[in-house]
Amino acid sequence: MMKSLRKFIQIHRSIKQHxxxxxxxxxxxxxxxxxxxxxxxxxxxxxxxxxxxxLAFSAGPIGVLNLGNLETKFLKKGRFFAQVExxxxxxxxxxxxxxxxxxxxxxxxxxVPIKHxxxxxxxxxxxxxxxxKRGLFSYDGAYLESKYxxxxxxxxxxxxxxxxxxxxxxxxxxxxxxxxxxxENHFGEEKEFDGLRAYDxxxxxxxxxxxxxxKGDMAVKTFIKETESANLVFHFNSAGxxxxxxxxxxxxxxxxxxxxxxxxxxxxxxxxLSSKKESIDEILEYLSKY
Amino acid sequence: xxFLNIFQNTNLTPLKLLDLAFIIVLLPLFLMLKVPxxxxxxxxxxxxxxxxxxxKTWLIILIFxxxxxxLYLSLYGAFSFRGLxxxxxxxxxxxxxxxxxxxxxxxxxxxxxxxLLSPFLFLALSLFFFHGMLMLIYVIFEIFFLLWMIxxxxxxGDIVESFRSSIVMFMYSLPWVxxxxxxxxxxxxxxxxxxxxxxxxQRMGHDGTMFLDNKALLVPSDRIVMEVGFEKKVPPSxxxxxxxxxxxxxxxxxxxxxxxxxxxxxxxLRKINVDTIEYKVTLYPTQKRWIYLLDVPVKxxxxxxxxxxxxxxxxxxxxxxxxxxxxxxxxxxxxxxxxRYTLKVSSRVNPKHNPQTYAEAMKIKDLYPSIEKxxxxxxxxxxxxxxxxxxxxxxxDINHTTDSFLFDKRRGYxxxxxxxxxxxxxxxxxxxxxxxxxxxxxxxxxxxxxAVKEKNAHAWAELYINQHWVRYETTSTxxxxxSQQQTDEDGESVKSTKNPLVxxxxxxxxxxxxxxxxxxxxxxxxxxxxxxxxxKDNPKFIFTFVVSLIFLVxxxxxxxxxxxxxxxxxxxxxILQPLLQFLKKKGFVRKKSESLHQYFMHYVEENQEKIELTxxxxxxxxxxxxxxxxxxxxxxxxxxxxxxxxxxxxI
Lengths: 290, 651
Fold this sequence. Notes:
The complex is a heterodimer.
Chain A: H1 2-14, E1 16-19, H2 21-40, H3 43-68, E2 70-75, E3 80-81, E4 86-94, E5 100-106, E6 111-117, E7 122-129, E8 135-139, E9 143-146, E10 153-158, E11 163-168, H4 176-182, E12 189-198, E13 208-209, H5 210-215, E14 219-228, E15 232-235, H6 243-260, E16 264-267, E17 272-274, H7 280-289
Parallel strand pairs in A: 3-11, 15-16
Antiparallel strand pairs in A: 1-10, 2-4, 4-7, 5-6, 5-9, 8-11, 9-10, 12-14, 13-14, 16-17
Helix pairs in contact in A: 1-3, 2-3, 6-7
Chain B: H1 14-30, H2 35-50, H3 57-74, H4 81-84, H5 87-107, H6 113-129, H7 133-154, H8 159-183, E1 210-211, E2 224-230, E3 241-247, E4 249-250, E5 254-256, E6 276-283, E7 290-291, E8 293-294, E9 305-306, E10 312-313, E11 322-329, E12 333-335, H9 340-345, H10 355-367, H11 371-384, E13 388-389, H12 401-409, E14 411-412, H13 414-427, E15 432-439, E16 445-446, E17 449-453, E18 457-465, E19 468-472, E20 480-481, E21 486-487, E22 493-494, H14 500-521, H15 525-537, H16 539-564, H17 571-585, H18 596-606, H19 611-628, H20 635-650
Parallel strand pairs in B: 13-14, 13-20
Antiparallel strand pairs in B: 1-5, 2-6, 2-17, 3-8, 3-15, 4-5, 6-11, 7-10, 9-10, 12-19, 15-18, 16-17, 18-19, 21-22
């Protein structure tokens, strides 16, 4: 009993209550009913009056318990780009044996309504957010809100955790396809098929002709011409005018290469970034922090 | 709760929820709506039901015009400033205006705050018109229903879950309502009255005149005329005489009171050496001015007049239930100094009307000089005549009623006995009169509660002996009592309730109704003070009260925990809950990502040394898998699962 009371007090402290227009309505209703009861001594009016009062009174703790048992945690999922809407993922866990009703998650720019979160269950909420500029950003001030049960009070619970992440440069500029048409040297592997021959163990595994293997023969493909072309290289200085537009252009190409699964290099003023050595996220992070 | 399963997939829109709320709050108001307004409301309901799109402007204007027209017709004739000053009419007008406005807004299909508030306004207004027992039950239902609808709206139309939440909230508030109701200071005006439509039924059984012919009032129905609550136990039947009117003048076929224009000497109330008794009466509409007090009333009841014959009357006829507290001394005699007129009128008798009776009376008069002796002899004489008490007597000879009753027919009921007794007493020289009223019957009593019915209407005689009026129960002189079927006021034959169990249950229901009316509907600051005083005087009562309150709180919490209990996707999962909670308590917490099977296996792995327990867990896991994934949801398996959970907890 004492434990539950202590828990309730603790929960109560984490919740803020704000009056709504319906609280004013309840006050007016109570006053009206009191006048009616006072003027005419109708016990039915007194009963209604006491019910309205008691229900409004009990709505407080019920609302507090509805919201107070929710635990929140930001999850890092997805990429953020400057000036592009991204989604911040918030995990809400209902640490109660009863369902939580009518919750709204308020973020910086938007709010997401949730009908209910079942007892002892998680729910993921995606809050839309547009980072203003590239680089590190933090997201705070989010809170949970509920008018459950009677709309007579707006209960809020702040999410104390601050979400921190990095926003990559806004991907914009010339498309990768246009870029490739402009550059003269081809890249990748240039091959001309000659025929098949038996596999003797010295050939590259990538040259194995799998269709023959399926038939029972171990054959490898041979090529007349087999030369490695130059790598796809992006130059920071020639990527655009001004640092921001260059970074945006590079970001766009990096994402396109990731999509096309192309290896690439970026020649930055002081460093060379290679997709073979660094992950895409590391490259993007370098660009965003440039 | 199973009845709610049909609503499992019902999600009502806010507009539909609002419509439901309106229907519920308007139902009692339908009883007071005048026909034109009723027609208007039915018409609007029809439009709302059949049109799915928001109404066009012309329709809304038409509804407004029709509404005003219906309002005009409904209140036609009552329109005047004088009429408007009457609160009831003003409230009726408010209801009508609100109905028109709500109809117009509802047809637009747009919910605004005014539309949301209207059900509460209708509820508050209906409380002005009805305040009976039925309304009490209905109001509590209305409050619950409105709460349900609000929660349904908040829970996006989920009827089942909102019902559970409403019960929880309702039960949370119930103990508060009880405490507030009892202790909230009542500092109000008088109880206002607007006339309750359901209470316009007139109670019969007593009239200012007493006929002896076929007009004789005989209403042996079970309708309750008044309910009496005594401070202590109900006194025995032979003391439960409720005085109505006093009849002095014999007009052959009927008896009348002394005309009101006659000025008589005031009664000098002398203290009666008998303990007084206090009681409270709820008198239902009789459309007469008499209020009934037990013999002998010692002081007038508030707002009533106690005349020199100790008859209580109010200014206007009683058209709605009346409540009064009274004090009486349970005596069959009281002192009175008769003025000349009263003496004359109470001695007046015409020997020619009943010569046979006169002859017998003269014999008694000559033989016994003492008035008391004469009275005793009259009783003896009556008893010797072998009279039969019957509710179906043969008609008497109107010109010689007493002779006809005593010497010829010998069958009659209270009025015939009382009339003949008084006539004969007067003939022997004893001033006497007839008293009409009610005689309570303890078979209609329970603890301190007594229900007085129409069939308890009675007439008896009062003889003036040694400066005292002495009550004589004249029907006790009957040698036979004829049992017969009772008839109600319409003459329809109604079998009397012979089954004692049914009678007892009926009495208990009436008692419960009376207690609810006394302690809830008519609870007042006086009762509040009485209760506090009683608590002061009886500390044991405080203990009982507190225990009752704790009991109520416990019941509320039991219901709350029942309705707050989580719902599970399957019965098997619900059966496993005690086990899961038990394991959690023991510190074996289930990981958020863990399935039940993984959780159980995890337990088995960690508790390999507890062979018996792990065996049970393995068995539980197996049965659970069979039920949930093997679609073997049989009663036997569920029973087995339950047993295993219990067994595990025991070990």
